[in-house]
Amino acid sequence: MSSEIPKGNELVRRGLKFSQLRLLAALRETGQIGAAAAHVGMTQPAASRLLSQLEAMIGTPLYARHSRGIALTEAGSVLADQAMTTLRGLDQAAEKMAQLRGGTRGHVRIGSVTGPSLELLLPVLREARLAFPEVEVTVRVETSDRLAEALLADDLDFYIGRIPDGADARPFAIDMIGAEPISLLVRLDHPLVNRQNITLEECLSYDWVMQPPGGLLRRTAETYLLERGHALPRRVIGTTSILFTLALINETNAVAPLARAVAQFFIERAALGSRLEVLPAAMDMAVKDFGLVRRADDDPRPVTDRILNLLRAHAAKRGQQTG
């Protein structure tokens, strides 16, 4: 068996020059050596010399002269076609790199807790899709604990949420946005809908659907009730699934404390065919402030900055509306 290693890039190894590719592509377009030479910025003698060197390298004529200029041979046409393809590919690569530098192309990995994903991220992505169609976005909706882990593992570029309780805050940087209001959501024909001056005691007489014990939204709801002298719900169905929560309150008389942005999204758009209503109770319930969380030592890429700035603009509008 031969020990010789096959070699690629044969023409490059023989000394193919980029200027020869440019000249051959121009020759294809102009049909004249003088015009091709002027197009690439060289003298005609220099162009003739480069073409002669290229023919010697290939081992076959690349063009034939006639009264009106030159005509490419079959070999010349093959090489000229490849030269044009190569040059066009390099131009496209240069354009893409310029877009990367300018933040109009690239991939952004975003995490978000549920409420802000609908209130802030959804309209921003709709705007970004129109303004920066070459930007690819991946969205991960989780709790802040899991999003923080993903951020520190470099699986996310940033997330919308909170720095987890008890976590070392030094690896994080956060642009605060504000509190996340909570609403008590029920089905449209729930017995408490359209009742005047309902109380939390009346709400607590029904099943509640909440996160499993320890979840931030559940802790917020339980703290809110206890601080106001109420007992906790007697029967709680625990789930992390928003979809299952919505399905359950659609089919039963259960009450679900959910981010107000989630409630409004499904009510205002009749999303997923839901028929839901917010109870006029505990209207001041809110989860602690959230924000745009990044790695403290990270210098965001231009494309990430583009999305972050859109989110900051929408967050500022949100602050004006709620302020």
UniProtKB/TrEMBL annotation:
Coiled coil: none annotated. Residues 16-73 form the HTH lysR-type domain. InterPro entries: HTH-type_LysR_regulators (IPR050950), LysR_HTH_N (IPR000847), LysR_subst-bd (IPR005119), WH-like_DNA-bd_sf (IPR036388), WH_DNA-bd_sf (IPR036390). SUPFAM superfamilies: Periplasmic binding protein-like II, Winged helix' DNA-binding domain. One of its GO terms (cellular component) is cytosol. GO terms for molecular function: DNA binding; DNA-binding transcription factor activity. Keywords: DNA-binding, Transcription, Transcription regulation. Belongs to the LysR transcriptional regulatory family. This is HTH-type transcriptional regulator GbpR. The gene is gbpR_1.
